[in-house]
Design a protein that fits this description.
Layout (H helix, E strand, L loop, with lengths): L4 H32 L4 H20 L5 H17 L2
Helix pairs in contact: 1-2, 2-3
Protein name: Small ribosomal subunit protein bS20
Keywords: Ribonucleoprotein, Ribosomal protein, RNA-binding, rRNA-binding
Function: Binds directly to 16S ribosomal RNA.
């Protein structure tokens, strides 16, 4: 166990941030699955900006890599544009 006050505080902060990051990443994955399950273009196009925003936020906070966010956005956009 850590002995210094700053170490204890860092441990608490890290645990809080980890939980927040996990929640946001899991929520984003759920929205991605929801978008991929969409069958009509209207509902998918309505959901796409939300998912793109979530991916950008995760990349900005370094929860996921920026290239992973870019790849996901590209694939999802292609998917939505391919719907009828």
């Amino acid at each position: 166990m850590a002995n210094h006050k700053s170490s204890l505080k860092r441990i608490r902060n890290s645990a809080t941030k980890r939980l927040r990051n996990r929640y946001q990443a899991k929520t984003t994955r759920t929205f991605i699955k929801r978008l991929r399950a969409a069958v009509d273009k209207k509902s998918a196009s309505d959901l796409l900006p939300t998912v793109v925003s979530m991916l950008d936020r995760l990349a900005k906070k370094n929860v996921i890599h920026k290239n992973k966010a870019a790849n996901n956005k590209s694939k999802l956009t292609k998917f939505v544009n391919g719907l009828k």
